[in-house]
Amino acid sequence: MLTKLNFIKIISLVIASFKYSCCENVFFVVNEYAERGSQFYCITNSSRALSWVTEDTTFITDLQQGSRFLSVEENLWKVDSYEIENHGWKYGESVADEIITDQRWENIQINKTDYVDVSSTDELQFLKILELESANFKVPLSIRTNPEAHIFLCDGVTVTSNCYWFLLQAFKGTVSGVRKCPIDTIPTKNNVYPKKPCYDLKVSIKHGSQFPKFLSRSAWQHFMLVKENNKISLIKQDGQEIISYTDNENIAYKVNNILIHSKRSAGLWKIHEVKYFTTSQSKKTHFNMTLLPVNGKICITAFIKMCENCKIKFVIINADNEKHILGQATYQKVSQWTQIRFITNPIGYKRVTLAIITDDESSSDHHWAIQEIQQCEENGLRMIYSKTLANCQLLSSDNKVISLDNAVATSYPDKYAECAESTISTHCIPCNLFVIENCGKLKVCENNQNELLCSCSAGYKTYHGNINCQTSCDPGTYGHYCTKTCNTNCQNCNTVDGMCTDCSNSYMGTKCDVAPMPFFKNSPEIKSFGYTEAEIVVNDFKLETFSSNVDLSYKYTVQYKEATATNWTFHPYIVYVGISHAFTIENLKPGVKYYVRSIISEYETNYDDIIPTADFVTKCDVVSSDDFQVEATSTTALLFVKKDRHSRICKFLTPETNIEIRPNISESYYYLEGMTLNINGLRPFEVFNLTIKNKNTVVERSFRTTEGVPDAVTNVIARAITDSEIVVGWNIPGNLYGNFRDFVVSYKTIKFLTCDFAPTVSEEITKTSVEPSIILSNLNPHTLYSISVKARNTKLSGLAETVEQSTLQSDKIRDQEIPKASLKKTNSRSVEIEFSSVPCGNLGAPLEVVTVAVCLTNWCKDQNVSNSLMYPQHKTLTLNNVAPFTNYQLKVEFHRNNFRKIITSDSFKTKTESPYAVKNLLVYSKNTHSISVRWRPPSPPTGIVNLYQIKLLEEDGIINVTDSPCFLWSEYQCYTLENLKEKQRYSVQLTAKNEEPDRFGQYTSVQALTETEPAEKPPDVMVKWTLENDVNISWKHPVVANGDIQSFKIVFEYSSKHGRIDRFLNITKSQYKPTYQMTVKLQTIQTSTPYKVVIRAYNGLDGDEAYFMDVSPPEIPLFEADPTIVNVSSNTVTLQVEKSKNFNPKNTYKLFLLVSDESPRSDSDPSELQKLESHFGISLSLGKVVFECNNFTAAKQFVIGRSDEVANCRQDSNITLTTGTSYNVTVLLVSTYQNKSSYKLYSKSALTSGEPLNSSWDLRFLALLFLLLILIPVFYM
Fold first, then answer.
1. What are the Cα distances from residue 781, in Å, to 869, 874, 1154?
2. pLDDT tens-digit profile of 225-273?
3. What is the CA radius of gyration of the chain?
4. C-alpha dihedral over 696, 702, 705, 711, to 10 degrees?
5. Which whole-number Å values give the CA distances from 532 to 85, 624, 649, 650, 697, in the listed order?
6. Which residues in 66-83 are b (16+ Cβ under 10 Å) and which e?
7. Could you give phi then psi for residue 1091, rounded to 5 degrees?
8. Which ranges carry the Fibronectin type-III domain (predicted)?
9. Which of 801, 740, 726, 747 lies closest to 771, judged by CA?
10. What pTM was computed for the model?
11. Residue 401: enclosing H or E segment and its boundaries?
12. Do 310 and 332 touch, CB atoms closer than 8 A?
């Protein structure tokens, strides 16, 4: 039944009808009472499934393998599975995606769940019915049971695994619900309760008026079990949700298997699985199984589906001539399972076969699938039968059920009286369609407008309250429920159909209901006849009558018909009996035999065998080749009679006609429609010779088919040559079926491999080539393309051959590939980076993305954090172990092969968190009633500290300190705890809190005793000598004073006759400083002498001493006389240097002689000069060292400009002096004792003799003149 006909495009060539001719909505049951035993039939013409149903589900009555079409022999009703598999079709099966209630449902396997007695403790029975392949699913199923059923959705194969438990009408039919049951919590024995947490119902409904029951043992009910993500639902056939459960807990179970169980009664279950055959080949499948026509016709039904551009053709073939097509129907655009059904016209052959032809207009993704191919009955009537009494259910939307039990046969509506006695039901169904003999004793119950009506077959009735139909009608009555009366002229009237064995009073007919009538004794005269007309003359008016009372005023006319026809045609002209008349009959067919007779027009008769007839055959011309015309396409040809010859030629194309086509093509076939020959399966662009023989007549015609679809190209090979080019080559097709035009190459994107993404819409690009190769350029890198190649003649394109090929990966990183990095989420210890999506077509290959958070804050310098990912497979990464409350800048590096790009992104700051413990907590001062503590803020900072909290464990209460910087130590916080007990040991705890979050950090503790103790030593004691040989002493306030500092004592100890100098610095609290200084006049201290400085603080007790040990610098070295220039020439200057006049043997002496020069001094000059310049900030860079003398003690003379050797002196580099040039000569004398030095610097000017090379004075060294004769002591490390 084509319930979805409006969704299917059907091309029909020879199809009689798609509608049932008998009736609509037939559904009834029949009980046959026979000697061989009762037979029960359930009959329908609906496409919905039929099923026997009984109250007791323990006994399965549904095991018949589907319904059978009436009047179709049982051994011919289906195409054999082996037959279709043997022709390249593959078998498949899967769970249906919708609830199936059509006739396919009848063949779905029944699963039976047994049960144990409610009082027993036997093992419960669980049946696994389905293994699932995906996390989300839709499973349609049918259930027949009562009162309760159970479904388990488990991750294992038994209920001892993790399961969702659906309880349907449980607790004696009162409640339905869902449980979530971990491993080993579902009971496997009767009368055992589930364990916690399985015992608790996650969701439940109580059955009543709001939630009616939905299971029944007396009818099948249909459901859809759906799982979508974490939600599982049970939905009724009408779409109403019965119950559902969404698992929002941390651990959701994976569902791999479905198990079932029933309680208190057996349960019958069907999982709606479809079993089908499929192929992906365009082909012709010829089934060798013979089909026998029913009433001269073939009816075929099947379920089909196919691709968008696919077609499927069902063809009925003459079994004795495979090229002779008797009927065919084509379907296309059937994307969902749909039942089709077609019926041929009367075919006149006893043996036919079936072929299926699959065809596809496209070149890829073609597929066809078929279910349930079988021969059907013209009126669509199907039946199931049983030897056991049961109710019958029609799986319609309202699940109608018909019962024979206790239903008394009563009179039917008047419509029943119109049915022949050989039929049953109000739809007049012939009994011989399903019962071998006559109707016999049948009881019929049917659903008529939702009302159950029961009656007996013709000739029988119920008797004395018996509900069965085994009593014959009373004599003189017959028909359905004995409502008809036999004719009074009938002898031995049959109680079934009213037929008579003999008639009285000259009546005629099987029921003696035809009164006597007159007719002509002789046939009319055939005066003449031609091709399409004949002249008939009536001039013999002798009548045959059954009565002497004949009215001579009768009128008459003539009737005619073809010899093979059943019905007569009246001539419209009527004449009185006794008047001769010539009747002209027109519009006859040439070469056809006709019968003609004359009748009395006042009487209509059914006695064709007693009225005399005459016959004739119209003329026709023997056919010739010129009488036919041929019209050809690329694969078909149509041979038909020319229009002007239709009315004259003899019938030529008959089933006996021998048709021969050369060249012989195995795929070709033909079929006849009247005087038209249809030829299919020809090759395009080819000349064919057609020979048609019928008896002694031969017709020969030649024709050429038009250009057709070229063959597909072969051996298409594609190869990537760059990241944007693919070369494609192929073999030229064997048959172009026309004149060659070019090759068409089309390509489109299948998938961007870098991001494994298939575009929703991909533009197809087409190029042409006259050569069997082409280079495709400007392609996206690392992209998979579908490349199709087809040949094209001047009219049509061939089937495309398709390959897939990807371009190469790119090495170089292009700007359009770079995603933008942005902060997705910032925490105190981590930051989540998200990279934007780059269009897949822009990506040449995956990128390694190295993301670095560069610390911009001083407490985490060189502590960068990095992580990497592969883009675009991953688009987010997390940088862990970043510091809180810290400024970072993102640096993103993109790597691929040997290429790299670095992008600096925006800076960001991490969030705050609770602070660390405070640093360096100590007691810096105390007395008998107070403790002063000092601490550094938490470091590194994790936020802005807004509060410190101080606790004394020995005291109640908390002291909150907001900001209390130390006077002496600016980087510290200080606080004094007062009013404490004397000589009490206290534990001080201190913690800090940031502005955000509102939580304190860790505590730091320190202990102190409330009494004054000696101060620790002052830190950072420093001693420096002044130019006057005084000593500047500096020190810092003691970190741990242990009381109020009242004074500092400074002691200077040295080796001399005095030996020691004491000094005191008295202070009050208001005079406290971070650093203290004191200058001690020590002119009496000998030079080059060791000394010791000792400092201690006094808070009432002498504190620990800090000391500093060093030596005094040597005396400033002096010459006995200042250096003098004793001689000057044009290229030399002679300098006289006397010996030292204050020589001390403990010291070492060194002399340097420098002369001005344009070139700067080299870095290899003596280190003493470099230290001198560094310490005092003077520059000797324009003086070149000429002489360096160690252990200088005696007078020496130096000649500058000449390489003369000087004792104990190293001439580093002498210079060439220029005539008439002024030079500055510097002498540096250095005296050193241990790590201290003093020096004396002298400077002289000299002018070489002769004319100057340059008249300008060289003033480059005038800046040094201020040093002349100035005594400068220096000491350095």
1. 21, 19, 72
2. 999 999 999 999 999 999 999 999 888 899 999 999 998 888 999 999 9
3. 61
4. 90
5. 54, 20, 11, 11, 22
6. bbbbbbbeeeeebbeeeb
7. -150, 170
8. 712-811, 917-1015, 1017-1124
9. 740
10. 0.53
11. strand 400-402
12. yes
